[in-house]
Amino acid sequence: MRLSFFAPCLLAACAVACAPSADGDKALDDANPDDSGADTAGEDGASWDPDATIYENCWSDLRPAEAGFPVYENFGLIPGRHCQGSDHQDITGVEKLVFLGDSITAGTPPTPSDEIWRARFTLAMKARFGEGLEVADCSEFGARTDDYLPDQLPRCFPGPEPKRTLIVSTMGGNDLFSAASAYTEGRGIDAALAVLDRAVGYQREALRSLRETEAERFPAGLFVITANVYEFTDTTGDLSSCPLADQLGFGGQAREVTFATSYMNAQFAQVAVETGTDLVFMGEEFCGHGFHGDDPSLPCYRGPDTPEFFDLTCIHPTSAGHEKLSEMFTAVVDG
């Protein structure tokens, strides 16, 4: 895969989203008021500093700017002090759990079905909300953001839902691949960017639809958590680092994949803020757990013996990756 001109255009499109903001510290301070004056621990066990950026509070052991992590404060996103995602909803009293999304949620071999994050997360939610929690799954292989409204949402919610509902989803990875394909097929950078923008638009449309019809369709209440997207090269763009990538037809060098991922994650954050939903930082947390995770020169290096989170298919989580993803969604629920 060759995307030699993809990066500069994406960097220009992502200039606001991925560059530090002069108001970033203040935005985070305002978003996380601490009347008691006491700090709480962030992901690495250090004290949470309400005057610091999410880079400093959550990823101080990495080089997040170099890795291309979006500056979420620029969108008004409220990061959870667990560092696993945002903190926009007070999720309580859930009676029904509904999974939407793509194959990451549906689960793929060789990971056993009881080890996929959906199964682990279901157990965690039953432990919190009771064994009587109703569970439904409308996720499917190959799904993209344009599958939300015409397919998955109507299928899981054919009519008003009387139970207090939590919707969770992973979506966007297949859209990212479609954007790359648009470029490599010779349709140009504008076509590739248009694919990403359409994908974000479909996500926005689906989440806005849920919010705008919430009173009629979810009279007992609705919570929504989505995830951003990841890539398996640890910012190198070395697609062939996955042993089967060349055989599966998407090997080669494509540093631009990192920029495309950052661009999409920035826009997904904006959608989460606009709709009052929550976003899991899957892209950030999986960075450094890819096929170059043993390279200490990279911005997401997490130390020796770091487990790989991507399986032999290159794009799906291992059992350890699924476990991490379940932990992340659970952290966002717990707040």
Number of helices: 14
Alpha-carbon distance between the two ends: 40 Å
Averaged pLDDT, please? 86
Q: Helix- and strand-based class?
A: alpha/beta
- In terms of quaternary structure, the protein is single chain
Largest sheet: 5 strands, parallel
Strand order of the largest sheet: 2-1-3-4-5
Low-confidence stretches: 1-41
Number of domains: 1
Query: What is the CATH superfamily?
Result: SGNH hydrolase
Overall 3D form: globular
**What is the CATH first-level class name?**
Alpha Beta
Listing every helix as H and every strand as E from the N terminus to the C terminus, the arrangement reads HHHHEHHEHEHHHEHHEHH
Question: How many β-strand runs?
Answer: 5
Task: Please tell me how large the radius of gyration is.
Answer: 19 Å
Helix percent band = 40-55%
CATH topology: Rossmann fold
Q: Label the CATH architecture.
A: 3-Layer(aba) Sandwich
Our estimate of the beta-strand percent is 5-15%
